Amino acid sequence: MSERAKQAGSLSGDQVELWRSFYTMRRKLDRALDLQLQRESGVSSSEYEILLSLNEAPKRQLRIKDIAGTIGWEKSRVSHLVTRMERRGLLNRTDCEVDGRGSWIGLTTLGRRTIIGATRGHTDAIRRYFFDALTPQQTTAIAELSPHVIEAIGCDSYDDDAQVSRTADPSPLGRPADTAPPADAAPAA
To answer: Is residue 12, in this structure, part of any structural domain at all?
Structure first.
């Protein structure tokens, strides 16, 4: 790439082609996984993320700000979705004894059954759409390059209000519902 192109913020033709290919793959993968969750489990990928974060939390409960920090969303977005999920019987709220202003968000029995059932099909879909499509060398390449991109992004992808945890798993969607993140998991950027 010429110095002038770099200064103007341009991408080379090969870079544009690579970016478009990656972007299309990522969007189609996200959409296919979301449709699978909705079709087989009746939850969206956003609801799945909340259910999973609660399922992995101590006592299977968190406060709104902690859910937002864990999954990297704004508190207002989490609050609205939690309210809808509460109406569906997936979550419940209890008063926080430590802080009278806040409340705990917890999994109901239905929420626990939903996350366990959803994870089985979701994990199968991740394997089918992603891992089965790649060679071991390709998965190694992705594992090696992902931390570099995450580091380059830093916290720029999160709202300051979300107070993102630096140790949150950056991609919880593929982890089985009954397991915690591995002790040696790479920290989120």
So the answer is: no
